[in-house]
Amino acid sequence: MARAYGKTVGEYFGAKKSPLIVRSNALDSHVAATYLKSDAGTGMTDPIPAEAALLIAVQLRPLFQHQLWLDGRKQVSPPYAAGAVTMVDLQSRPVANLMGAYECVQMYFPQSALDNLSEIEEIPFLRNVPLLLGASDRMLEALGRLASFAVNPIGAGSAILLETMLAGVCRHVSSHYGGAKIGPSNPRKVSILSAPQERQIKEYIDAYLDTNISLITLANLCTMRPSNFLRAFKNTFGTSPQQWITDQRLRRARHSLVFGDESLAAVAVSCGFHDQSHFSRVFRSAEGIPPGAWKLQNRP
């Protein structure tokens, strides 16, 4: 059985950085995001095996010299501006010829993951998705930049990130390209979390902070669809679940650094970071200095 494109994207584009592959147990699937950059082009890619998956690419800088074939047919390939979006069904066996400099992020969504989340969100399944080549789509561009931020430079992603991206893709592509009429589900009812819901969410996150917490699990605790829960959470806490969980991990890490004797690697794992390197990058981004130096400054 062939490996999924999301796991092998680097082999097609000569990427030195591995894809960010995040699994969602709630969806029984994974997505991948890959940051790709070349200052001289990488030439022709090998044909990508047909696969039931959606590929969305967002250009982080203009792309001038490129060609694309789908099912053996050459496509019109004008220059793409920064922020341009390409959306391709991988059943079409794409082949690209990248003749000049490029910088982009690719997001890979297996059809099984899209179907599972569509069922949870109670929206139509994505079928016959239209081809986008260098299109302007602010929502998909924003999702691509979110994926780029996760892959480079902050590092390891999470189930929350994966499921947030999937929820955005499912609802946006269904409503804008699939003809489905999807609107907010009575936003007055889900504008904020109730006091018991807020308490339950805080207790759950605190208990499972060292694990890969799932958006879908949190939404299920409140008996909400993921998209409704995202809105209610932000209105209640003033930030996204991803950021709030990161803040709680940093809070626990600061306490461990001041009052504990664990190594930095042990603190990273116990607080739910992917590894010590990921912990150090996130901590330094928040505090301005590495965790080791912060520890020396703040120990009693």
Automatic annotation (TrEMBL):
InterPro entries linked to this entry: AraC_XylS_family_regulators (IPR050204), Homeodomain-like_sf (IPR009057), HTH_AraC (IPR018060), HTH_AraC-typ_CS (IPR018062)
Keywords: DNA-binding, Transcription, Transcription regulation
Domain HTH araC/xylS-type, residue spans: 199-297
Annotated Gene3D superfamilies: Homeodomain-like (1.10.10.60)
Signal sequence, renumbered to the chain: none
Entry annotated with the keyword DNA-binding: yes
Domain of life: Bacteria
PROSITE patterns: HTH_ARAC_FAMILY_1, HTH_ARAC_FAMILY_2
Name of the featured protein: Helix-turn-helix transcriptional regulator
Species of the source: Herbaspirillum robiniae
